[in-house]
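Quick entry between incubations.
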Amino acid sequence: MAATRECGAAANTSENIMSLKKALSVASPLTLRIVAECPVTKARACDLILPHSAVSTPVFMPVGTQGTLKGITVDQLDALGCQICLGNTYHLGMRPGPDLIEKANGLHGFMNWKRNLLTDSGGFQMVSLVELSEVTEEGVKFKSPYDGKEILLTPEKSISIQNSLGSDIMMQLDDVVSSTVTGPRVEEAMHRSIRWLDRCISANKNPEKQNLFAIIQGGLNTELRKACLDEMTQRDVPGFAIGGLSGGEEKDDFWRMVTLSTDHLPREKPRYLMGVGYAVDLVVCVALGCDMFDCVFPTRTARFGSALVPWGSLQIKNKQYAKDFEPIDPDCQCPTCKRHSRAYLHALFKSDSAAMHHVTIHNIAYQLNLMRSVRQSIVEGCFPEFIRTFMKRMFPSRDQYPGWAVDALASVNITLE
Amino acid sequence: MAGCRMKLELSLVALGKGRLGVLKGLGKTGQLSLEVPGCLLHTHLGTVPHLTQDTLSTLSTLPSVTQITLSNIAEHQEVLEEFKDGFRKFAGLHDTVLYCALHDPATPCPTGHTTNKTVSVWGSGGRIELTVAKFMALQKAVKPDWYQSMADGETWQINTSHKRVRKSVDRSLAHLDECLLVHQKSQELEGVEVFGVVEGGDILEERVRSAKETAKRPVSGFCLDGLQTGSMDQALRTQLISAVTKELPEDKPRLLQGVGRPDEVLASVEAGVDLFEGFFPFQVTERGCALIFNFNISSNPELAVLEPGEDQETAGDSQNNGDLNPDDQTQMTSFEINLKDKRYQGDFRPLVEGCGCYCCRNHQRAYLHHLLVTNELLAGVLLMIHNTAHYHAFFSALRDALAEDTLDLLKRRVLGQTERKD
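Done. Structure below.
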């Protein structure tokens, strides 16, 4: 299925999208329309058309783990312009469980979110959160933290839960291995992930409504990753995620695996880089060809009083803000910055949980705004310029630019002076 | 003379049945008003707990008066003094009347730290001692539209001695006189209203003495202190309030501190109270509960007492009725349901059928249950919205009942649920 391509200013009216959607909705619950491609880097700006709405990419997807974005109503999320957010299969599969959510008309119905949802498979949570009993070819055996019972999560079970959740994008169950692990385990996990992908594809009861994404593994090993890419791209899935990264590995290795992956992923399908959310990482990885990102960082750090700004972050709970009567970011148009000062938020953190919500709203606005600006610059053909301005704002001087970022950008023809 | 633009226009005064009216002339421009009986908007530092402006604005009828407390604010005195433009602007509050109280009614504070010249509040960093001088400096920094004078209300514990109660009356009068003296000399407080505080513990003569004396001072209205939920049973409270209000001028409002339960509100209104601190919805929210008590009496009065079996929530019957302590403010009341209870796991109804609040329009009990079980922050947000809406609608119904002389019916409706024993 060829995707259309347009250069320069985007002419994608919602009419165009709707008619395109109608024409293709019978064939696939996902359509990617490439609106612009950066002539210098590997960046793209696309319209990702999903069952619940269109999504403009590059996109940052906030994480609403347990069927809620912590402290934020769906109306507030909608008002910020969020078009897609995440839910976690592991958490929701435990509580309240797939049967109840199915009764509630899926996760959309349960949380009353009218736009798109992406659910992960539960794989990462099992490795990062719980006492891992055993990984076998069958699946992952682990102990439930709530009642100590042993649970086996198989590819089939994961997909079954995600079918009940009814998310617009589902992730395959992959054999997750920490990015700091080396040796034969990495290779074993990579091969198994391919086999599990096939099992997930077979198990998907709703292929016409729910999109199953594959997750490229292979750790930090070029050969393994290439092998995984070669195999998985032979499967007919609507999109690909780049997994097994963003777990504490060296950034120098990280970006090389990202760019290797995008080099070998099909142009006309979306690329989702999992677990990436720092501003610099987002901008660089867009330049390396990624379209979609998720991360708990912006919302989690908000609850600790850390507000994200174009020049870094402000720790609002710090004494230095007690008498600072400016908003978090004078240029920010979010509800928090339009009404409240740093000093008020600083004080409010001592009195009420609403302080966290104010900063959460701001941080989501910051992330979404960043991606919107990135997209706009790609569409207008000035993404390289955007990157330079962005870096200058973020770092006090050239020698503070992270080395890996400089290298990564150089690899896609961006030199930072 | 303290600000005296505040005017209570009563449309109805029925002895033993309450007063109905409008408190006018509020706010900087004197254009705002508040219907009585009514309750204030309870906040932490100007923020309704859990809510930001977006979530707060989903509530259509909010009282025009926002209550802030020195217990939250005292530790920020320096900041406010440097800010110079008053608390309203500091908090990003716009068109609202600001009333500054001393203590947060939702959090009882430790006792034993009051002296002849000082009272104490507890901020996030610990105890802050207030002299009248510091108290008034705070008022100047806060710049409220109206505040209660400094008072000693530490008489609510069981077995407070007669001597101690007498002291609280004497001290509070002394504090009031000192406050008024400073107030009259302060340019910054011109136009700001002051409420005197009536004390007296549970001793009738002291209550009457305090009321009589306080009424002699040039105040705009009266706070009734030391009658908090948990300090005494409602029968005694009613008796004391009635005795107090007899000594107070009819045309000045009476604000009862620390009382918020619907049954106590109804009884206190009948005894002559006009205003309440609206903290009860917050307490209900904090225990993961939702207000569901019925105050709708517009249907056929014949049917009012006969409840449909299925729908009637027997609020509180998920508790074991063994050792209920009616004085424990954190304990669930019969006016609410505990959404953590397993029975709500698969209940897809809204909290209250027909409630137009954001929570009831968009979410179901099962979802709230899930949020509470998983300790999600959104639970507090949604419950606060619903509980606030429900509680303020109750006050609206109360005013309607007074206007239409159907208070007895309302009482049966609201209280009927506390009488079921099964």
